[in-house]
Amino acid sequence: MTINFLDRGEGRIAYTVRGEGPLVICLPGMGELRSSFRFTEPALVEAGYRVAVLDLRGHGDSDDGFHRYDDDALASDALALVDQLGGPALLVGNSMGSSAAVLAAAAAPAKVSGIALIAPFVRDPKINPLMRLIMRLLLVRPWGPAAWRTYHRTLFPGRPPTDLAEHQNRLTESLRRGDHWKSFVRTTHTSHEPVHRQLDQVRANTLVVMGEKDPDYPDPAAEARYVAERLRGELLLVAGSGHYPMAEYPEQVNPALINFANRVTAGA
How high is the pLDDT of residue 133? Predict the structure, then answer.
C-alpha cells in the first residue's frame, strides 16, 4: 500500500488511504501504529468508506523533530488531513487518538461529521505520585522499550489477536527508528486536561467504545458512561476486552462502528 505524507512544516505525517466514499480518519493511540486499525480499516472500506489511517508524530513512518507531541498537535494534524483529503470526516480515535478527535470536533465542527472514541482519555487518570515516578523510570533506556512491550501486552486481557507478537515486533522496530523513542517518551507526557475543558463545546455525534477490562482505568465502565454522558453519545461496552477492543473483538466493534458511520455520514 502506498504511504502518503502530510507536510506539517516541522515534519511530515505518514498516512495511507483506501476505499471510496465518505471520509473516515483513524487516529491511533500513543506508542501505536497505523496497523492498530488493521481489523477496522478493511471493514470500513468494504462498507463503502474512504479510510485514512495516520501515524502519530514520531511514530511509524512519520517524522521526528516536532516541537509538540500532545493532543492538540494530533488534533491539528487530523484537521489538516481533512483539508488535504476533502472532508468532512468521521474521526475514529483510540486512546490518545480519541482525545484528539474531541479537540478537533470542538475546534472545527464543520470538518467533523462525527467522532468514535475507543478507550477514550478525556481527562487525566488519577495516578499515585509514586506510581507516576515508577512509570517515568520504566521509560528510560536501555530497559524502556522492553518495559513498554511488556506493559502493552497487558492491554489485551481478553482475546488477543493471533498476530499480536508480529504487531509488537512492528512496534519495536518503529521505536528503533531515528529519534522515535525520544518522541514516544515526549508523547507520554501529554496531559488530557485541555480535552476535559472542551467537552461542553463538542456538538458532534459520538460513539464511545470501551473494553470492560481495560487496565488503563480503575473502573472502565464508569469512565465510559461518564464520557458518553458528557458528550451525549452512544455507548458500547465490550465484555472481556482491554484497551484495544477493535483488535480483540472486531466482530463486535466493527458492526457498531459501521452503523454509527452510516448514520452520521448520511447524505455526505
Answer: 53
State the pairing for strand pair 23-27/50-54. Answer: parallel
Helices 164-175 + 144-154 axis angle, to 10: 150
Cβ(211)–Cβ(119) under 8 Å?
yes
Q: Which amino acid is at 51?
A: V
> For strand 4-7 and strand 12-18, is the pairing parallel, antiparallel, or unpaired?
antiparallel
Measured distance CA(91)–CA(108) in Å, rounded: 12
Report the candidate in 105, 9, 4 with the shortest Cα–Cα distance to residue 50: 4
68, 90 Cβ separation under 8 angstroms? no
Regarding pTM above 0.70, the answer is yes
117, 93 Cβ separation under 8 angstroms: yes
50-108 pLDDT tens trace: 999 999 999 999 999 999 999 999 999 999 999 999 989 999 999 999 999 999 999 99
Report the distance separating Cα 82 and Cα 163, nearest Å. Answer: 31
User: Do 234 and 228 meet the contact criterion of CB atoms below 8 Å apart?
Assistant: yes
The answer to whether 61 touches 33, Cβ cutoff 8 Å, is no
- pLDDT tens, residue by residue, 111-154: 999 999 999 999 988 755 544 554 666 666 677 788 888 889 99
Pinpoint the alpha helices (H) of the chain. Answer: 41-46, 71-85, 96-107, 129-138, 144-154, 164-175, 180-188, 193-198, 220-230, 245-248, 250-264
Angle at 16 between CA 259 and CA 139, to 5 degrees: 95
Cis preceding-peptide flag for 215 (omega within 30 of 0): no
